[in-house]
Amino acid sequence: MKIFTAEIAILACLVLGTGKGSSILLTEDCGTAKHPSRVRRVVGGKDADRFANPWMVLVLGQFGDFICGGSLITRHFVLTSASCLMSTPKQVVLGEYNRNCTTADCVSSRQVIDVDSRFIHDEFNMTSVDKKYDIGLIRLARKVLITDYVRPICLSVDRRVGHKARYFTATGWGITDLSKLSNILQKVALMKLDRRSCTRRLRIKLDGSQLCIGGLNRDTCSGDSGGPLTVKSHMDGNRKSRTFLVGMVSFGSPSCSGIGVYTNVEHYVDWIVNTIHESNMNSSQAHHLRESTEMNYNFTTN
């Protein structure tokens, strides 16, 4: 119960528009890794550093099959695409790197947690061509343990970190240039493109809730949906940079030919904060109701 109380207090401040300092983060202990990320280029990409992406999440379906990627944003919540959640995920895996690794080190670093509930944006329409509102949240059945392998990514509540950024990093286990899913987490450097580029190539008109992202012979692909698009930024004059979540893989060309549409996560910060806040409040109320029912039952049977 203490877990929910702490989150409710923090999120209440965010909903009311108050906070300490000049920048507000969804969760404070975020965006840092044991080792700095190596510069890597999912099609056209290379193996990511073992410790560089502790917020990366593998989302599994009803039969333990790999569905998509996601980002750990608090110790209780994973952000992913709405299209991913339509498949009704059952579990998430954190601390994953090599999906085929069965050594003691790999097994001990993983945290496999059941999905408690899922929240899909009310306006998302799976049949819509432009896939707007492609965003959703997974509430975990228990909070994660923070380790060198597992840590939330930073999400700024009060400023748009990615607004002026030109270059980004995407990560995932999706299809590579070898036309098969990768076992080892891949990392690719991409850049922001004019929205008109996506309109011409994909015949989709984007708005401010979406980003047009691409690269020369580099792209995310099938299996990368829901995965993070990130930038590094410094907080309030602090010399040490942190990794921020600014976008999320949504869709692109079937051939993964260097251009794709990403959900602009910073556009949905209010929805994210409010959804988490309401979820925590409902869980708190449900917990108190169970306690009250148990107490009344014990009283009447004694």
From TrEMBL:
Residues spanning the signal sequence: 1-23
Listed GO CC annotations: extracellular region
InterPro entries according to UniProt: Peptidase_S1_PA, Peptidase_S1_PA_chymotrypsin, Peptidase_S1A, Ser/Thr_Proteases_Immune/Dev, Trypsin_dom, TRYPSIN_SER
An example molecular function term from Gene Ontology annotations: serine-type endopeptidase activity
Biological processes annotated in GO: proteolysis
Pfam name, any one: Trypsin
Sorted UniProt keywords: Disulfide bond, Hydrolase, Protease, Secreted, Serine protease, Signal, Zymogen
Main location group: secreted
Gene3D superfamilies xref list: Trypsin-like serine proteases
Family to which this protein belongs: Belongs to the peptidase S1 family. CLIP subfamily.
The protein, known as: Peptidase S1 domain-containing protein
Classification of source organism: Eukaryota, Metazoa, Ecdysozoa, Arthropoda, Hexapoda
